[in-house]
Specification:
This protein has seven helices and no strands. It is mainly alpha-helical and 125 residues long. Helix 3 packs across helix 5 and helix 6 runs antiparallel to helix 7.
Length: 125
């Protein structure tokens, strides 16, 4: 039987096995561990995609090595760090994204459709 742990290709060889009880609690803690950047980045990308139509990573179902690189990696890193620092507050994340410049640009575009092409391309909306 294979030991309970993250896949080596994702977590590396040095990651400890989940050996306490069924391992489910250890897995849950490992997923939301602040030192695990992937969970926050994936969640932030999904919320961004929900509000703007496209994520900062265009391949949200393949966030790993084979996926596409983020269009704005610094923004994704900052949003992820802010999300974790806020105690994983989804309300704060939604507020942060909904008060951002791309959302303001999207609102502007609905009022000024003739200028949509250039601005839409610039903001990726």
């Amino acid at each position: 039987m294979a030991p309970r742990r993250f896949l080596r290709i994702v977590a590396g060889k040095d990651r400890e096995h989940f050996n306490q009880g069924s391992g489910r609690e250890q897995l849950a803690k490992a997923v939301v561990d602040p030192t695990n950047p992937l969970t926050a980045r994936v969640f932030v990308n999904r919320v961004w995609q929900h509000h703007l139509g496209q994520g900062l990573v265009r391949s949200p179902d393949n966030f790993g090595v084979l996926g596409q690189v983020p269009t704005h990696p610094e923004l994704l890193d900052w949003l992820s760090a802010t999300f974790v620092e806020s105690g994983w507050s989804t309300k704060a994340l939604h507020r942060l994204i909904l008060t951002s410049a791309p959302i303001a640009a999207a609102a502007y575009l609905t009022k000024h459709p003739l200028q949509a092409t250039e601005t839409t391309a610039r903001f990726g909306a």
